[in-house]
Design goal:
Elements lengths: L16 E6 L6 H8 L2 H4 L3 E6 L3 H10 L4 E5 H9 L8 E6 L5 E6 H5 L5 H10 L5 E4 L5 H12 L9 E4 L5 H6 L5 E5 L2 H7 L3 E6 H4 L6 E6 H6 L1 H19 L2 H11 L9 H8 L2 E3 L5 E3 L17 H13 L9 H8 L2 H11 L11 E2 L5 E2 L4 H6 L8
Length: 388
């Protein structure tokens, strides 16, 4: 676009109305606000939001063409690309939608028995004759991998020492209250709900596991992107602007919290979203803090860039836990899936800063350094992993 118009029609969106799937979670905010603020129209498209009920359902609707693009678990995109748990399909990550902002919650009953962090939970697991049950939102998804990583860092082998269950995000707190699970990892506002209702305590945040970790991805099938590159570019530019608007001020975050709390989107009281979106946490045991690694949607472009090393990390964890049976060419797969060239074009349109590299370095909770240099060795380096 040039001055609001198209350059000789060359970059005009191929389709103007986009069916975009989302899950009722706090981190759908930039998708919702792109529509609410009319940023989609600025780039010549119209976002039609579709509230979905399950990750697998949204994945399947995307595969069937009933949705054009979707907010998907980043790790799930790579599972589909590799044919883990579903038919294999070539996928595309258009951008990262957010960083941070998930939580690990244990039941009040476990907390009452002294399990208030990883070490104390490990002691209880070792002493208890029964195996505790921990829930995540999808077997190949982000929350399963955050949960596994946190448990393993505490000395609990998630595959050998625990039972694992898949529960829809909105049902986590009720499942905890009913005693069906002993703990869970999920996106907000469902950890906050468990604390607010007095059924759970927050023992860790995902940003403690990996500060500024990748979150949900704006995803599409590779076939859709190939057919509609201009539409995808316009969508990314609109969502980048929405993320920048949300992160610009506490007032904007507050307004976004009010918008997404409505029945059309997350359908919870605004305060359940607002506090943790602003970085204000309470753990249910009397501790309150402001998290400097709160949920963020822009971060001057660092929170939205589709880093190759982020995609590679999820594959290393699939490999670690036996979901992936071999070491792929990690970087080559990530380069096919993460559409960095398209993202760069959208960043230029929206005035979003770009990093100097397509990989980054991070230190995780167990002290391990992840930089994408030797993913096969990294995947094999963990003491807790599924043996061949």
């Amino acid at each position: 676009m040039a001055g609001g118009g198209y350059v000789a029609g060359s970059d005009k969106p191929e389709i103007e109305t986009l069916r975009l799937g989302f899950m009722p979670l706090t981190d759908c905010a930039s998708l919702v606000m792109a529509s609410v603020l009319g940023l989609d129209q600025k780039y010549g498209i119209r976002i039609v939001l579709s509230r979905e009920q399950s990750w697998s359902g949204m994945r399947d609707r995307l595969a069937r063409g009933e949705l054009d693009c979707a907010q998907l678990l980043y790790a799930m995109v790579y599972a589909v690309q590799q044919g883990i748990g579903s038919l294999r399909m070539d996928m595309a990550v258009l951008m990262n939608l957010n960083q941070n902002g998930q939580s690990i919650t244990l039941s009040r009953k476990l907390a009452g028995r002294g399990a208030v962090d990883g070490a104390s939970l490990a002691a209880l697991v070792a002493a208890e004759p029964r195996r505790f049950t921990f829930a995540h939102t999808f077997p190949t998804g982000n929350h399963a991998l955050w949960l596994y990583y946190w448990l393993a860092a505490a000395g609990i082998d998630p595959l050998a020492d625990a039972n694992l269950a898949t529960v829809p995000p909105s049902q986590m707190a009720p499942s905890l209250a009913a005693g069906h699970v002993d703990g869970f990892c999920a996106g907000e506002p469902w950890g906050a709900r468990a604390v607010r209702e007095g059924v759970g305590v927050t023992v860790a945040t995902s940003q403690q596991v990996w500060p500024d970790h990748p979150g949900k991805a704006l995803a599409a099938t590779a076939a859709f992107v190939r057919k509609n590159p201009n539409t995808c570019r316009a969508l990314v530019a609109a969502v980048l602007e929405a993320g920048r608007w949300i992160d610009a001020s506490a007032a904007n975050r507050d307004a976004a919290a009010e918008a997404i709390a409505s029945p059309a989107f997350v359908n919870v009281p605004r305060e359940l979203i607002r506090e943790r979106m602003l970085g204000s946490y309470e753990d249910g045991l009397g501790r309150r803090w402001h998290d400097r690694h709160r949920l963020r949607f822009y971060g001057d472009g660092a929170a939205t860039f589709p880093w190759l090393s982020d995609g590679m990390w999820f594959m290393t964890q699939h490999r670690r836990w036996g979901l992936l049976q071999y070491d792929p060419d990690y970087r080559a797969v990530a380069a096919r899936v993460n559409r960095i060239a398209l993202y760069r074009e959208a960043a230029e349109l929206s005035g979003t800063p770009l990093p100097s590299s397509d990989t980054r370095s991070s230190i995780l909770i167990d002290g391990s350094v992840w930089d994408g240099r030797d993913p096969a060795a990294y995947a094999a380096s963990f003491a807790a992993r599924k043996s061949a």
